[in-house]
Amino acid sequence: RGIGAYSKQLKRLSPAHRRSPVFRKVSEKIQGFKDSIPLLSSLKNDALRDRHWKELMKMTGVNFEMDSKSFTLNKLFSMELNRFKDQIATITLNAMQEAKIEKDLARISKFWTSQSFSLSPYNGDESRGWLLQDCS
Q: What is the tens place of the pLDDT at every residue in 10-69?
């Protein structure tokens, strides 16, 4: 059973139950969980570097340690990061764009590193400078 089933069960409760503070609290938790699921996909993006996690912590005011042994799904949900979905979306989008730029720069660097250029003295006189020869 998924979270949607629990949400449907809540909607079927009587109006008297819906006025209950417990109903509201459970509804908020379920909605927060539903909102967190897409965030988990965003946060597992390989483009996120340490600098992005630090930015996320600074922006949200929620500090956490990224140790894979102590960082659990439960801790992630307890942070209620769903409150910061816009900020997380911005950070992950920036991280993905930065990763693309880094990849493109590496490709460009590799291309230009392998290029060689021929120079010849201007009008046969080195003292007057050098000319780039036709590289085609």
A: 888 888 888 889 888 888 888 888 888 888 888 888 999 989 988 988 888 878 777 667
Cα→Cα distances 62→3, 16, 65, 132, Å? 25, 36, 10, 56
Q: Are residues 91 and 49 in contact, defined by beta-carbon separation less than 8 angstroms?
A: no
Q: Are 30 and 6 in contact (CB under 8 A)?
A: yes
Cα distances (Å, whole numbers) of residue 3 to 18, 40, 53, 80, 125: 18, 15, 27, 16, 80
Mean pLDDT, residues 66-80: 73
In angstroms, the CA 111 to CA 105 distance is: 10
> Measuring CA to CA, which residue among 48, 110, 106, 57 is closest to residue 79?
57
Residues in Cβ contact with 3 at an 8 Å cutoff, skipping those fewer than 6 apart: 30, 33, 34, 37
Asked if residue 84 lies in contact with residue 60, where contact means CB atoms within 8 angstroms, the answer is yes
User: Distance between CA atoms of 53 and 65, rounded to whole angstroms?
Assistant: 10
Closest CA to 89 of 37, 55, 39: 39
